[in-house]
Design goal:
The complex is a heterodimer. Chain A is mainly alpha-helical. Chain A has helices at about 20-35, 40-55, 65-80, 110-125, 130-140, 145-155, 155-180; strands at about 15, 60, 100. Chain A is built from 7 helices and 3 strands; from the N terminus they run βααβαβαααα. A two-stranded antiparallel ribbon of chain A has the order 1-2. Chain B has 2 domains: about 65-170, no CATH class; about 180-270. The chains are: A mainly alpha, B mainly alpha. The interface between A and B is large, with 96 and 79 residues.
Chain lengths: ~200, ~270
């Protein structure tokens, strides 16, 4: 991490409070939540919860570990936990939906194809259990090492390997099925964290 | 944990080494995955989110005195190092000049930055001091910035946890007063956030309504937490309605105050449109 947003650079040992973390990493956390299967209309609320927990933990000290890894762990916990809870009233403050947006294509056709690609991947991810999905997303998309993932999830690194292998296999299988379908629906399945708890 | 751990070398990311994906799927899968990996989250309102976070933190900090935090912390059943911290809190409580005086969280002798590694089971509702005595707090605090393994306990702890037994040495704060203060503050903030959210949503399809809502906000929340965003929305609504003179005039004033803010770019775009 080179900076916490446009406001100031960071140095090793510096303490980053929740606001600084938000400015620098809100996009990352929002994207991570979406990748975990949190529905768009719930992302804003989950996002706030993540940074509130970051605040309650006292913020982050810049060091060898990445703040995004630290935030990903919190986001994973929040996303997993919020599935089980009733919605809080603060969610009503901003009900706009947040979604993954493909990079702008050169033509409308490119954009449409990109959206279909996002849809296929998201649906394949949704088919995984939340534990496997977290490993797959952290490793394949967020670029975390297996050791870091093991620390984030509190599991042995060998379990990370086995979950990743299983997740890869299942992801590829579902993706293949979706690719083979003649017509793909453009919307995602209606349930968040589809495989949670399985 | 149903998976059987096994050892192997660190795998390589599919997107870094596509050949590693050959046993699983073809190029089409990797293209899709790359597309997905490059996608950004859109629709995130940074300003509103940051202000909401700020409001939530301020609400907690103002409404929950350190005494309540300390009692909540001690009330948690499994305490690692609880005796030592309990004695510390007891000493601290005895030093307080008046039990009814709200204390600042910073008084508690646990530095915020050192509390970050406490377990999630305790970090959800208590301010910075609480995590060190959380139910799953590690016996040895790991080095900074290392995420900690956390079990299945919920991250979010309900406020009811404050009802756990409290030690004699702790200072009591009547819970109903705290809750009422929190609720009133949160409700007021919620009203403001909802109003701005309505204006924001109306902007693209119905700028006249958006403008009206920003005026309503200015009247009801002249010193609200979302003034910056409201002013930006107002300017954008004026521009969308073709009232460019007014938009330009307001934009000049807005950018003088918030030229580096998160809404500045949108305002500049709005008034630069031919």
């Amino acid at each position: 991490m080179e900076s916490v947003g446009p406001y100031h650079p960071v140095v090793t040992g510096e303490h980053l409070d929740a606001e600084a973390l938000y400015r620098a990493h809100a996009d990352f956390v929002a994207r991570f939540l979406l990748r975990l299967g949190v529905q768009g209309q719930d992302v804003a609320d989950h996002l706030q919860e993540v940074f509130l927990v970051a605040h309650r933990r006292g913020g982050f000290i810049v060091g060898p570990a990445k703040p995004t890894t630290w935030l990903a762990e919190i986001a994973f916990r929040v996303a997993s936990d919020r599935r089980k809870k009733t919605k809080r009233k603060l969610e009503d403050a901003d009900t706009e939906s947040i979604a993954l947006a493909a990079a702008a294509g050169a033509t409308p056709g490119d954009t449409a194809e990109a959206r279909q690609a996002l849809d296929r991947v998201q649906r394949a991810l949704d088919a995984l259990t939340v534990d496997k999905r977290a490993v797959f997303v952290l490793f394949e998309l967020e670029g975390e090492s297996c050791d870091a993932i093991a620390r984030v999830l509190g599991i042995p690194v060998g379990t990370v390997y086995s979950r990743l292998h299983a997740a890869r296999r299942e992801f590829a299988r579902v993706h293949q099925t979706l690719t083979s379908e003649a017509a793909l629906p453009t919307s995602r399945p209606g349930k968040a964290m589809a495989g949670a708890g399985a | 944990m149903t998976e059987s751990p096994h050892t192997e070398v660190e795998p390589t990311r599919w997107l870094d080494e596509p050949s590693g994906a050959a046993d699983f799927g073809g190029p089409a899968m990797l293209r899709d995955l790359a597309q997905f990996g490059a996608a950004k989250a859109s629709g995130l309102d940074h300003a509103a989110g940051l202000v909401a976070l700020r409001g939530a933190i301020a609400s907690q900090t103002a409404a929950v005195p350190a005494a309540a935090a300390a009692t909540k912390a001690i009330g948690i059943k499994t305490v690692v190092g609880g005796l030592a911290l309990g004695a510390l809190v007891g000493w601290w409580a005895l030093q307080r000049p008046s039990p009814s005086t709200p204390a600042k969280p910073e008084v508690v002798a646990v530095a915020p930055a050192t509390a970050e590694h406490a377990a999630s089971g305790s970090d959800a509702t208590a301010p910075a001091a609480t995590p060190a005595v959380g139910p799953r707090a590690p016996a040895v605090v790991p080095p900074p910035a290392e995420p900690e393994a956390i079990g299945d306990d919920p991250v979010i702890v309900d406020d009811d946890e404050a009802d756990t037994p409290r030690p004699r040495t702790a200072v009591r704060k009547p819970k109903p007063d705290v809750r009422e203060g929190e609720d009133a503050s949160a409700d007021r903030y919620l009203e403001e956030a909802q109003l701005v959210a309505r204006a924001r949503k109306a902007l693209s399809g119905d700028p006249a309504t958006a403008l009206q809502l920003t005026k309503q906000h200015a009247k009801e929340f002249p010193k609200g937490a979302l003034v910056e965003e409201r002013r930006a929305l107002s300017i954008r609504a004026l521009a969308a309605l073709g009232r460019m003179d007014e938009a330009q005039r307001d934009a000049e004033s807005f950018l003088a105050s918030f030229g580096d803010g998160p809404h500045a770019a949108a305002v500049r775009r709005a008034v630069s449109t031919p």
